Amino acid sequence: MVSKDEIKHLGWLSRLELADKDLDRYASQIDEIIRYFDKLDTVSLVGNEPTSSNMKKVTELRKDNIYMFEGNPLEFFKNRKDGFVKGPKMV
Predict the structure, then answer these.
(1) Which tops the pLDDT comparison, 86 or 51?
(2) Taking residues 51-79, what's their average pLDDT?
(3) How many CB atoms lie within 10 A of CB 70?
(4) What are phi and psi of 77, to 5 degrees?
(5) How many CB atoms lie within 10 A of CB 22?
(6) What domain count does the chain have?
(7) Does some domain include residue 10?
(8) Angle of helix 4-13 relative to helix 20-41, nearest 10 degrees?
């Protein structure tokens, strides 16, 4: 069983603020997920042939139509300098 401390740690790693009342609910949900993965581990794959998909290739989904852009695309950006778009400062 997953402990409340482990759920708090997962919340901290995920940058989520978890209320104490939700810890039991999340612990039981994660336990259920782990039990399902344990069940999947018991499935034997011996003697099963791989299947293939009937989906179309990505290139067959639609035809790409290429159009030339007329004008200066930089005119749509307010933060531009010397032919480049200026992004926010990263600290």
Answers:
(1) 86
(2) 78
(3) 5
(4) -105, 135
(5) 13
(6) 1
(7) yes
(8) 90
